[in-house]
Amino acid sequence: MKGTDFDQRVYAMVGQIPHGYLSTYGQVADRIGAYGCARQVGWALRRLSLPTLIPWQRVVNAQGRISMSLSREGTDWMQRDLLIAEGIPVDLEGRLPLKRFLWSPDERQISQMNQLLRAL
Predict the structure, then answer these.
(1) 118 band by pLDDT with thresholds 50, 70 and 90
(2) Whole-number Å distance between alpha carbons of 83 and 89
(3) If you classify domain 5-119 with CATH, what class do you get?
(4) Beta strands in 21-106 (DSSP E)
(5) How far apart (Å, rounded) are the C-alpha atoms in residues 80 and 75?
(6) On the CB side of 34, how many CA atoms lie within 13 Å of its CA?
(7) Using DSSP, how many helices (H) and how many strands (E) does the chain show?
(8) 92-95, long-range: CB < 8 A, 24+ apart
């Protein structure tokens, strides 16, 4: 998969988010050691070629919403459909129950993620 080192770290981290769970752009940034770079995480995910095996749809904004925008060229609606298919309810404004589906990795998972990131 192409992309910068930053992109590769984002993709590796997002690839760890389990089916039926969510993470925020800021959490992904923090977990790869790029504190305060939530927007850059979003841009990295936007650079993915679709379809992809990276579960990009599982990353939402900190308000528990899909970032709806005309500039997303329909991927916001695709994201909504993919999340609903995973059993995560999303309303027509892109709101979802973030607290209920937020992924909180345990210590073992964090250790594995850190090993993966060091290998990149």
Answers:
(1) confident
(2) 7
(3) mainly alpha
(4) 23-24, 59-60
(5) 8
(6) 21
(7) 6, 2
(8) 93/65, 93/68, 94/65, 94/66, 94/67, 94/68, 95/64, 95/65
Give the domain ranges of the chain: 5-119
Q: For residue 23, give every residue at least 6 positions away whose Cβ sits within 8 Å of its Cβ, in sequence order, or none.
A: 14, 17, 58, 59, 60, 102, 103
- pTM: predicted TM-score of the whole model, two decimal places: 0.87
**Which tokens is 107 given?**
């210590």
Residue type, 17: I
Residues in the chain: 120
Question: What is the per-residue pLDDT across 25-35, written as a single tens digit (0 to 9) for each?
Answer: 999 999 999 99
Query: In this structure, are residues 87 and 5 in contact, taking their beta carbons and an 8 Å threshold?
Result: no
The answer to whether residues 37 and 73 touch, using CB atoms and an 8 Å cutoff, is no
Task: Output the six-digit token pair for 48.
Answer: 């993915």
Q: Give me the chain's average pLDDT, please.
A: 89
